[in-house]
Amino acid sequence: MKIYSALEEIERPFYRPALTIGNFDGVHLGHQALFKKVVELAGKRGGDKVALTFHPHPMKVLRPDNPPKLISTLEQKVELIMEAGIEHLLCIPFTREFASTSATEFVEKILYCTIGLEDLVVGYDYAFGRGREGDIDFLKTMGHKLGFHVHVIPPVKIEGIIVSSTAIREFVKKGDMRMVRKMLGRFYQIRGLVKRGKRRGGPVVGFPTANLSINPEDLCPKPGVYAVQVIHGERLYNGVVNIGFNPTFHDGKLGAEVHIFNFNREIYGHEIKVNVVARIRDEKRFPGPDELAEQIRKDIEKAKKILGSIKTGT
Questions:
Q1: Which residue among 61, 170, 209, 309 has the highest number of C-beta atoms inside a 10 angstrom radius?
Q2: What is the pLDDT at residue 205?
Q3: Which SS3 state, helix, strand or coil, does residue 187 take?
């Protein structure tokens, strides 16, 4: 997949492209339906499969005091869009100046002249441009005028709930990883570099942990203990993670401590990916290391039962 970080990098219009546009935070099942239609339409004629997204998330620019916590990092979003079969990803810088672009200018100058739009795939509630003036009726009118087709994808529902980034954020914050997995079509994943912690996991408690810092801007599952899959390099391991503030030792800073089963490698400074599979219990304070260790043993047994029924990570 070729990635463009500015419109100026597009030297000529794409070949008979099908295009979809969105923030694609999480690349959930609703987004995947858009990509599937793009691949289908462009594939019929050998055209280019194109997606247009923005960085940073528009709400970080428009509402800097209260931006949404993101389901996926830019790196992960790019990986998932590539896996969906998109060949060209336009990752356009979102600024206040760009936000002032009118819907007509966006369609005529960017979508039609620069990209060479032939088929546009959008979700049922899509709107864009200054004041969200570019709704679906507007797009269809412009398509009739300029000669491109608009395809509207209906909502995807899970257990009667429309799949959306907003809904997924709420389930993540509640720790409902079952619904999160259903809406994403995969496990929720957190990533980070393993940092040196207090070194209490092995020497004090008896269970060595890989410690991850959690950026306050990242979307974090509800504090507690979870069964997880851990990806290090090309290998996948099972484990448990405590997400929270470590009240037994009064740390007071949000973090993630991952105990990886049957793993004894030195991985400080390495990146690991943690698939959050299922919530086991709330985080709580214990009188001391011995009581904490006993609870961890119980957590590990529960995690092994949960993870034993899962064949591979997704």
A1: 209
A2: 58
A3: coil
Burial of 40 (0-12, 13-18, 19+ CB in 10 A): middle
> For residue 182, is it within any domain?
no
Looking at the DSSP bridge assignments, the partners of residue 272 are 192
CATH number at residue 289: 2.40.30.30
For position 37, which CATH number holds? Answer: 3.40.50.620
pLDDT (mean) for 189-200: 78
Look at residue 313 and tell me whether its pLDDT is greater than 60: no
How many whole angstroms from its chain centre is CA 56? 14
User: Reduced to 3 states, what is the DSSP secondary structure of residue 35?
Assistant: helix
Q: Kindly tell me if the per-residue pLDDT of 201 is higher than 50.
A: no
Q: What are the C-alpha distances in Å from 235 to residues 181, 260, 271, 310, 313?
A: 21, 12, 12, 15, 10
- The residue range of the domain holding 297 is 187-308
pLDDT tens digits, one per residue of 227-275:
999 999 999 999 999 998 865 444 567 789 999 999 988 899 999 999 9
- For residues 154 and 9, membership in a common domain is answered with yes
Question: In this structure, what DSSP letter does residue 152 have?
Answer: E
Instruction: Give pLDDT, residue 92.
Output: 94
Residue 261 belongs to a domain: yes
> End-to-end alpha-carbon separation of the chain, Å?
21
Domain identity same for 119 and 207: no
Pair (198, 135) in one structural domain: no
Structure tokens at 65: 């005091």
Beta bridge partners, 194, equal: 212
d(CA 203, CA 151): 59
On the question of a cis peptide bond just before residue 56, with omega within 30 degrees of 0, the verdict is: yes
Q: Structure tokens of 50?
A: 């194109």
